[in-house]
Protein backbone atom coordinates (compact mmCIF):
# COMPACT_ATOMS: atom_id res chain seq x y z
CA UNK A 1 0.00 0.00 0.00
CA UNK A 2 0.97 3.65 -0.32
CA UNK A 3 1.91 5.56 2.84
CA UNK A 4 3.67 8.78 3.78
CA UNK A 5 6.90 8.21 5.72
CA UNK A 6 10.11 10.01 6.67
CA UNK A 7 13.57 8.49 7.05
CA UNK A 8 15.17 11.44 8.84
CA UNK A 9 14.04 14.36 10.95
CA UNK A 10 13.68 17.64 9.13
CA UNK A 11 11.41 19.95 7.17
CA UNK A 12 8.37 19.02 5.09
CA UNK A 13 10.61 17.85 2.25
CA UNK A 14 11.64 14.73 4.21
CA UNK A 15 8.13 13.31 3.71
CA UNK A 16 7.89 10.68 0.97
CA UNK A 17 5.02 8.62 -0.43
CA UNK A 18 6.32 5.06 -0.58
CA UNK A 19 5.15 1.44 -0.82
CA UNK A 20 4.98 -0.34 2.57
CA UNK A 21 3.46 -3.51 3.96
CA UNK A 22 -0.18 -3.27 5.00
CA UNK A 23 -0.81 -3.09 8.76
CA UNK A 24 -3.23 -5.43 10.52
CA UNK A 25 -5.18 -4.89 13.74
CA UNK A 26 -4.19 -6.46 17.01
CA UNK A 27 -6.53 -7.22 19.93
CA UNK A 28 -8.91 -4.34 20.59
CA UNK A 29 -8.09 -2.61 17.31
CA UNK A 30 -9.66 -2.20 13.89
CA UNK A 31 -8.25 -1.47 10.46
CA UNK A 32 -9.81 1.00 8.08
CA UNK A 33 -9.49 1.79 4.42
CA UNK A 34 -8.59 5.43 4.97
CA UNK A 35 -10.72 8.04 3.24
CA UNK A 36 -9.21 11.08 4.96
CA UNK A 37 -6.50 11.80 7.54
CA UNK A 38 -6.34 14.81 9.83
CA UNK A 39 -3.25 17.05 9.69
CA UNK A 40 -2.26 18.09 13.21
CA UNK A 41 0.61 20.24 14.53
CA UNK A 42 1.68 17.16 16.49
CA UNK A 43 2.41 15.44 13.17
CA UNK A 44 4.98 17.97 11.98
CA UNK A 45 6.48 18.37 15.44
CA UNK A 46 7.18 14.61 15.40
CA UNK A 47 8.61 14.95 11.88
CA UNK A 48 10.94 17.72 13.07
CA UNK A 49 12.13 15.59 16.00
CA UNK A 50 10.80 17.90 18.71
CA UNK A 51 9.79 14.92 20.87
CA UNK A 52 12.71 12.59 20.20
CA UNK A 53 14.18 13.02 23.69
CA UNK A 54 10.98 12.13 25.50
CA UNK A 55 9.45 9.78 22.95
CA UNK A 56 12.08 8.41 20.55
CA UNK A 57 10.84 6.65 17.43
CA UNK A 58 12.51 4.27 15.03
CA UNK A 59 13.13 5.67 11.57
CA UNK A 60 11.85 5.40 8.91
CA UNK A 61 8.48 6.17 10.46
CA UNK A 62 4.93 6.84 9.35
CA UNK A 63 2.92 9.98 10.06
CA UNK A 64 -0.52 10.80 11.40
CA UNK A 65 -2.91 9.94 14.22
CA UNK A 66 -6.41 10.91 13.09
CA UNK A 67 -8.42 9.38 10.27
CA UNK A 68 -11.83 8.49 8.95
CA UNK A 69 -12.68 5.59 6.69
CA UNK A 70 -14.40 2.25 6.23
CA UNK A 71 -13.73 -0.71 8.52
CA UNK A 72 -12.21 -3.63 6.62
CA UNK A 73 -10.56 -5.74 9.37
CA UNK A 74 -11.46 -6.26 13.02
CA UNK A 75 -9.10 -7.41 15.77
CA UNK A 76 -9.95 -9.93 18.46
CA UNK A 77 -12.08 -8.77 21.36
CA UNK A 78 -13.77 -5.99 19.38
CA UNK A 79 -17.56 -5.84 19.36
CA UNK A 80 -20.22 -3.37 18.28
CA UNK A 81 -18.61 -2.61 14.94
CA UNK A 82 -18.72 -4.44 11.60
CA UNK A 83 -16.75 -4.57 8.37
CA UNK A 84 -18.18 -1.90 6.09
CA UNK A 85 -19.02 0.57 8.88
CA UNK A 86 -17.88 4.17 8.42
CA UNK A 87 -15.87 5.47 11.37
CA UNK A 88 -13.55 8.18 12.62
CA UNK A 89 -10.89 7.79 15.25
CA UNK A 90 -7.29 7.83 16.34
CA UNK A 91 -4.58 5.35 15.54
CA UNK A 92 -1.10 5.45 14.05
CA UNK A 93 0.46 6.12 10.66
CA UNK A 94 -2.83 7.37 9.25
CA UNK A 95 -1.34 9.14 6.23
CA UNK A 96 -1.83 5.91 4.29
CA UNK A 97 -4.27 3.83 2.28
CA UNK A 98 -4.91 1.59 5.31
CA UNK A 99 -4.46 2.37 9.01
CA UNK A 100 -5.06 0.68 12.36
CA UNK A 101 -7.20 2.56 14.88
CA UNK A 102 -7.17 2.05 18.65
CA UNK A 103 -10.11 4.39 19.37
CA UNK A 104 -13.08 5.04 17.11
CA UNK A 105 -16.75 5.87 16.77
CA UNK A 106 -19.23 5.65 13.94
CA UNK A 107 -19.40 8.55 11.54
CA UNK A 108 -22.13 10.94 12.78
CA UNK A 109 -25.02 11.56 10.42
CA UNK A 110 -24.43 14.55 8.16
CA UNK A 111 -20.62 14.46 8.50
CA UNK A 112 -18.52 13.48 5.50
CA UNK A 113 -15.16 11.69 5.67
CA UNK A 114 -13.10 14.85 5.12
CA UNK A 115 -14.85 16.70 7.95
CA UNK A 116 -14.76 13.70 10.28
CA UNK A 117 -10.98 13.22 9.99
CA UNK A 118 -10.44 16.60 11.62
CA UNK A 119 -12.20 15.88 14.91
CA UNK A 120 -10.47 13.21 17.06
CA UNK A 121 -7.28 14.81 18.41
CA UNK A 122 -8.75 18.31 18.18
CA UNK A 123 -11.75 17.53 20.40
CA UNK A 124 -9.72 15.42 22.84
CA UNK A 125 -7.24 18.26 23.24
CA UNK A 126 -9.97 20.88 23.64
CA UNK A 127 -11.77 18.89 26.32
CA UNK A 128 -8.54 18.11 28.21
CA UNK A 129 -7.22 21.66 28.35
CA UNK A 130 -10.60 23.08 29.31
CA UNK A 131 -10.60 20.67 32.24
CA UNK A 132 -7.01 21.48 33.23
CA UNK A 133 -7.42 25.25 33.15
CA UNK A 134 -10.43 24.98 35.47
CA UNK A 135 -12.57 27.70 33.90
CA UNK A 136 -16.14 27.71 35.22
CA UNK A 137 -19.55 28.70 33.84
CA UNK A 138 -19.97 32.45 34.08
CA UNK A 139 -16.24 33.09 33.77
CA UNK A 140 -14.36 34.31 30.69
CA UNK A 141 -11.78 32.28 28.78
CA UNK A 142 -9.21 33.81 26.41
CA UNK A 143 -7.98 31.61 23.56
CA UNK A 144 -4.76 32.64 21.82
CA UNK A 145 -4.79 31.18 18.32
CA UNK A 146 -8.55 30.80 18.27
CA UNK A 147 -9.23 30.16 14.57
CA UNK A 148 -7.50 26.79 14.17
CA UNK A 149 -8.95 23.37 14.83
CA UNK A 150 -8.42 23.21 18.60
CA UNK A 151 -9.41 26.86 18.97
CA UNK A 152 -12.61 26.30 17.00
CA UNK A 153 -13.48 23.36 19.24
CA UNK A 154 -12.60 25.14 22.50
CA UNK A 155 -14.73 28.18 21.69
CA UNK A 156 -17.80 26.09 20.85
CA UNK A 157 -17.45 23.63 23.75
CA UNK A 158 -16.83 26.43 26.25
CA UNK A 159 -19.90 28.33 25.10
CA UNK A 160 -21.99 25.17 25.38
CA UNK A 161 -20.86 25.03 29.03
CA UNK A 162 -21.86 28.62 29.79
CA UNK A 163 -18.35 30.06 29.59
CA UNK A 164 -17.80 33.41 27.86
CA UNK A 165 -15.00 33.39 25.30
CA UNK A 166 -12.49 35.76 23.75
CA UNK A 167 -10.10 34.88 20.95
CA UNK A 168 -7.03 36.28 19.24
CA UNK A 169 -6.51 35.49 15.57
CA UNK A 170 -5.20 37.02 12.36
CA UNK A 171 -7.05 39.89 10.69
CA UNK A 172 -8.62 37.60 8.07
CA UNK A 173 -10.14 35.36 10.76
CA UNK A 174 -11.80 37.96 12.98
CA UNK A 175 -15.28 37.41 11.57
CA UNK A 176 -14.84 33.64 11.80
CA UNK A 177 -13.90 33.82 15.50
CA UNK A 178 -16.88 36.09 16.15
CA UNK A 179 -19.14 33.63 14.31
CA UNK A 180 -18.23 31.08 17.00
CA UNK A 181 -19.53 33.42 19.69
CA UNK A 182 -16.26 34.97 20.84
CA UNK A 183 -15.17 38.55 21.33
CA UNK A 184 -12.26 38.79 18.91
CA UNK A 185 -9.10 40.82 18.45
CA UNK A 186 -5.87 40.48 16.52
CA UNK A 187 -2.54 39.31 17.84
CA UNK A 188 0.67 41.29 17.31
CA UNK A 189 2.02 44.40 19.09
CA UNK A 190 -0.46 45.81 21.59
CA UNK A 191 -2.54 42.63 21.79
CA UNK A 192 -2.58 42.59 25.61
CA UNK A 193 -4.09 46.07 25.73
CA UNK A 194 -6.62 45.14 23.05
CA UNK A 195 -7.68 42.10 25.07
CA UNK A 196 -8.00 44.19 28.24
CA UNK A 197 -10.35 46.50 26.35
CA UNK A 198 -12.61 43.49 25.68
CA UNK A 199 -13.04 42.75 29.39
CA UNK A 200 -11.81 40.61 32.27
CA UNK A 201 -9.91 37.37 31.61
CA UNK A 202 -10.32 34.56 34.16
CA UNK A 203 -8.32 31.86 32.33
CA UNK A 204 -6.33 31.57 29.11
CA UNK A 205 -5.14 28.97 26.62
CA UNK A 206 -2.14 29.26 24.29
CA UNK A 207 -2.69 27.11 21.21
CA UNK A 208 0.02 28.28 18.81
CA UNK A 209 3.18 28.94 20.83
CA UNK A 210 3.65 32.47 19.53
CA UNK A 211 5.48 33.80 22.58
CA UNK A 212 2.34 35.04 24.32
CA UNK A 213 2.69 33.32 27.70
CA UNK A 214 3.96 36.36 29.63
CA UNK A 215 1.04 38.37 28.30
CA UNK A 216 -1.45 35.67 29.24
CA UNK A 217 0.09 35.50 32.72
CA UNK A 218 -0.24 39.27 33.02
CA UNK A 219 -3.90 39.13 31.99
CA UNK A 220 -4.89 36.29 34.34
CA UNK A 221 -2.52 37.04 37.20
CA UNK A 222 -2.11 33.34 37.96
CA UNK A 223 0.08 30.71 36.21
CA UNK A 224 -2.43 28.04 37.24
CA UNK A 225 -5.00 29.76 35.03
CA UNK A 226 -2.89 29.46 31.88
CA UNK A 227 -2.34 26.29 29.81
CA UNK A 228 -0.26 25.92 26.64
CA UNK A 229 -0.18 23.09 24.13
CA UNK A 230 2.53 24.67 22.00
CA UNK A 231 5.19 26.52 24.02
CA UNK A 232 7.86 24.24 25.50
CA UNK A 233 9.27 27.15 27.54
CA UNK A 234 6.14 27.18 29.73
CA UNK A 235 7.66 25.47 32.82
CA UNK A 236 10.14 28.34 33.23
CA UNK A 237 7.14 30.59 33.92
CA UNK A 238 5.37 28.08 36.15
CA UNK A 239 2.81 27.45 33.39
CA UNK A 240 1.63 23.94 32.50
CA UNK A 241 2.41 22.41 29.13
CA UNK A 242 -0.35 19.97 28.14
CA UNK A 243 0.55 18.59 24.74
CA UNK A 244 -0.61 14.97 24.94
CA UNK A 245 -2.83 12.62 26.91
CA UNK A 246 -6.51 12.15 27.67
CA UNK A 247 -9.23 9.60 27.03
CA UNK A 248 -9.92 9.44 23.30
CA UNK A 249 -12.97 7.17 23.57
CA UNK A 250 -14.69 9.62 25.93
CA UNK A 251 -13.70 12.54 23.71
CA UNK A 252 -15.16 10.90 20.61
CA UNK A 253 -18.42 10.18 22.44
CA UNK A 254 -18.69 13.82 23.54
CA UNK A 255 -17.83 15.02 20.04
CA UNK A 256 -20.64 12.94 18.55
CA UNK A 257 -23.07 14.33 21.14
CA UNK A 258 -22.02 17.93 20.44
CA UNK A 259 -22.28 17.43 16.68
CA UNK A 260 -25.71 15.81 17.02
CA UNK A 261 -26.95 18.76 19.11
CA UNK A 262 -25.62 21.27 16.59
CA UNK A 263 -23.10 22.66 19.08
CA UNK A 264 -19.88 21.73 17.28
CA UNK A 265 -18.78 22.12 13.68
CA UNK A 266 -15.20 22.47 12.49
CA UNK A 267 -14.78 23.46 8.84
CA UNK A 268 -12.17 21.97 6.53
CA UNK A 269 -9.88 24.83 5.57
CA UNK A 270 -8.10 22.89 2.83
CA UNK A 271 -7.73 19.32 1.61
CA UNK A 272 -4.70 17.68 0.00
CA UNK A 273 -3.80 14.36 -1.60
CA UNK A 274 -1.25 11.98 -0.05
CA UNK A 275 1.30 13.23 -2.58
CA UNK A 276 0.80 16.73 -1.16
CA UNK A 277 1.56 15.83 2.47
CA UNK A 278 4.63 18.07 2.49
CA UNK A 279 2.54 21.04 1.34
CA UNK A 280 -0.05 20.26 4.02
CA UNK A 281 2.64 20.32 6.71
CA UNK A 282 4.16 23.54 5.38
CA UNK A 283 0.76 25.23 5.39
CA UNK A 284 -0.03 23.92 8.87
CA UNK A 285 3.26 25.26 10.20
CA UNK A 286 2.63 28.65 8.59
CA UNK A 287 -0.51 29.03 10.71
CA UNK A 288 -3.48 31.28 9.90
CA UNK A 289 -5.65 28.16 9.53
CA UNK A 290 -9.42 28.52 9.79
CA UNK A 291 -10.61 25.11 11.01
CA UNK A 292 -8.77 21.96 9.86
CA UNK A 293 -6.51 20.65 7.12
CA UNK A 294 -6.93 17.07 5.91
CA UNK A 295 -5.43 14.61 3.45
CA UNK A 296 -7.84 12.81 1.15
CA UNK A 297 -6.98 9.21 0.25
From TrEMBL:
It comes from the Bacteria. One of its GO terms (molecular function) is oxidoreductase activity. Keywords: Cytoplasm, NADP, Oxidoreductase, RNA-binding. Residues 10-295 form the Enoyl reductase (ER) domain. InterPro entries: ADH-like_N (IPR013154), ER (IPR020843), GroES-like_sf (IPR011032), NAD(P)-bd_dom_sf (IPR036291), Quin_OxRdtase/zeta-crystal_CS (IPR002364), Zinc-ADH_QOR/CCCR (IPR051603). SUPFAM superfamilies: GroES-like, NAD(P)-binding Rossmann-fold domains. It holds the Pfam family ADH_N. The keyword Nucleus does not apply. It is an enzyme of class 1 (oxidoreductase). It is found in: Cytoplasm. Its EC number is 1.-.-.-. Homotetramer. This is NADP-dependent oxidoreductase. It comes from Nocardia suismassiliense.
